[in-house]
Write a structure and sequence with these properties.
alpha/beta; eight-stranded mixed β-sheet; binds guanosine-5'-diphosphate; cell membrane; Signal recognition particle receptor FtsY; Signal_recog_particl_SRP54_hlx; GTPase activity; cytoplasm
Amino acid sequence: WHEKLFGGFRKTSDRLGENLTGLFGKAALDEATLDEIEEALIASDLGPATAGRIRARLKGEMFDKGLDERALREIVAQEIEKVLAPVAKPLEIEAFPRPQVILVIGVNGSGKTTTIAKLAHLLQEQDYAVMLVAGDTFRAAAIGQLKVWADRIGVPIISGKEGGDAAGLVFEGVKQGTEKGIDVLIVDTAGRLQNKAGLMDELAKIRRVLGRLNPAAPHDVLLVLDATTGQNALSQIEIFKETAGVTGLIMTKLDGTARGGVLVAAAERYGMPVHAIGLGEGVDDLKPFDPAEVARAIAG
Ligand code: GDP
């Protein structure tokens, strides 16, 4: 996993290095050089606040042998860790009430279906009884794909027909989950951002149904974000955070993208818990993350 993490973030750290090329070796960090460093950090998707703090830390530092790449990457890693540490929170499964209901939202293509399978697998490994609800009833493919995953990892799934009523399925899920002693119910939802009003209405309906069954539900509303979309991932947080009541984030596709810095920008700007990161398409490729390690992997 360690290798996967560092391998996954390599393009991100390489890009950071490329953006900073030309700045190494400078003896005097004058305002113009500091500006250039700050620009390079922003261009690496780390977000303006983190870039500004790194600039402030560098100001006043003396580099008698010239600005050293190692020293700079060390400072970058330390500052990134400070941003990530408060948001890196594994998903908590409460002892009561059961089943704990987790709604998973995100735009189509973000990796939502795969993430649900990975999350279910992760929880299974922790000995939780998990059940899925195929609530993305607008896409026959999404229903089919989730069923394939459920089969593969061996978890029960509640699904209906394409175009069916998602809230009805959720109702059925909670009912059966309670009867069968399920600990965690993971609910897929539609991700058609082009019909935002419809999407939000549907989420509201699911919430109403859940609330009637259990006032604490949904316990979590997880937003799945595709890191490869860079700054676009940030605007999705903006769109969903209020309207959908997002409680936490999962960022996917952090393997092999040069835009991994967006994880830092998201943490910095929104301070929302990041429960896990996706580093591949396999069922084992979702893990809670260690902020120190991820900071090192990004800084390179
Ligand atoms: P959905 O439309 O949001 O449900 O997205 P899917 O779960 O179907 O994923 C879309 C594509 O992204 C699929 O080809 C997945 O295999 C891929 N994918 C999902 N998560 C990851 C990840 O963490 N890393 C990589 N490299 N690919 C991923």
